[in-house]
Amino acid sequence: MPFDPFTQSASISENCNETQVESLADVLSWIDDGGSDLETDTRLDYSRAVKLVGKRLRKPLSSIPASTVAFRAEFPDAEYSLLWGKSFNAFKRWKGKVCAAINGATGAIAAKAERRARDDDWRTLIDVLSDIAARTPPEDALFHEKEIIGVTALADAARRADVPGPRHIPGCVHDILAEAADSGQRKAIIDALHLCDRIRTLRDNRLGQLLPDDPIAYSPVEVAQIEIPDHLLAELDIWIDLATRGEWSLTKKAYGKGIARKPYQDATRKVIRTAHQGGGINLAEIQTIASAFSDSVLTQVVRIWRKEHEAGERGTVAPRTAKNYLDAVKCFLERNGECTDLVRNILATDDWIQSGEAGRGMPERAKRLCRRVVTDMPTRLAFLSLHISYRDAAEDCLKMAEADPKTRSHALLMARLLGTCAAFAALETDAVPARVGNALACPYRGRGAWLELGHGRKQHGHLHVPASETKNGKAINAPIRADSRLRGLETLRWYEEKIRPLFPYHAESDYFFPAVQTAGEPLSYATLLKWWKKTIGNFGFPGMNPHMFRHGQASILVANNPGDWQTVSARLGDTEFT
Questions:
Q1: N or C: which end of the chain has fewer CB within 10 A?
Q2: Calpha distance 21→43 (Å, rounded)
Q3: For the packed helices 148-160 and 121-135, what is the interaxial angle rounded to 10 degrees?
Q4: Could you give the C-alpha distances from 196 to 129, 152, 157, 376, in angstroms and in order?
Q5: Model confidence over 242-300: pLDDT tens digits?
Q6: Model-level pTM greater than 0.85?
């Protein structure tokens, strides 16, 4: 029987404290010297996995700390490389074995077993729920017996937070959630809190003695879910229009083309929602958005961002993002005739905000990806053939739809998802690394078509992006050769024939990537991002988003044209400086 690091803990609790475990060398000694009850095959398997850590980091095991947190930081899923495993699944299995060995050697399992063995109100609650589940027929059950697993996770987190029993939950919810190791555990704890409220309706005196007098009623409110009243949104639109419109034309008697609205819209709405969440304003009572940009409210907003980020909470604003928001707010207020002294002061004096300045430019994880696809040939080949991998997966779904009528609907949806990602990757790979927005807004029919796919085996395709849509103000003209070894044109034609008709409004839309729900519109970036993130981990590049994919393609373009920044600029549509 293989070793389960969270159940087989009896002998570990006896041996884990005999010697201090500080490095992976100590973990290896624990495995090899009989410090555990591992079976022979499992012992060899774990020993090989731990030794591989040293080889892959090129360090002696004695210099690598025996910490699962440090180990995961060295080998993050989002930066998976073929050097770390033949496949992503093999890489994940290897990480699981190493973490299990570390947990066993350091006594983390013994500590968890000790908490589970405590005879307290949490144990009583779990026993009562198990008894109710066993005695209640399935058709009459208020909860499924598997939901008790979530209560076990809640109990373990509460014990770590020194919460003595379920009756004390209401005042300690945030402390309990802070003990969650990951998003999955956090969700299990929240589900258990909801279960505690549901079971209050059961007529069982034992539950009445264990649960708090009032419902917990925990409901996490995401800032993005806070609705801004229509009259405030209308006023905000006027302010944004004043901040982004161009110069007045005396001849045309109208304002010229201004700057993009979205950065100002994102920044101001984030400030307003954070101010409401923090109690600085009440959106149901204020009559003007000016209240959200007063000195006191803006100060509170930045403090909230900083506090949440330093606490490591999910979905927080990073320093770099906060700086971008404040830069936009400064310009927004200035162009509307408001005082910007406070915002300037925060930008100049707040060390947390200033730490975002050091992170300007390409994110570190994007740099690592670009370095890998340029220097590591197996990774580069997998990267350049990503569209073929996506296409093969989509073809499998199409075959499944034909073979099994029961799964046809789901299989066609998956084929559309995978095929769209394949076509996007092919366009970026074999045409030009265009901006994602340009790729999605690409018309391929009508007089203004940007994309020409050609016909026949020897006729080439062509991509044209107008100068008005590029960053450097120069049009992009890129051939898509039919004889290219990258086979991008082949994938694009396949998408047009087999995948594009799966979109409900494909006939009404001239866009190569039609929208899913709106006729005549292009596919939104949010939809592509959702589809891409859902599947990219299966193809060896977990954590890579479409924009990072463009970065990687651009890096290969630069490597193939060293020093020729004019060519690179013309192909990317960027200035030579960027």
A1: N
A2: 18
A3: 180
A4: 10, 12, 15, 52
A5: 888 888 777 877 777 778 888 899 999 999 999 988 888 888 889 999 999 999 999 99
A6: no
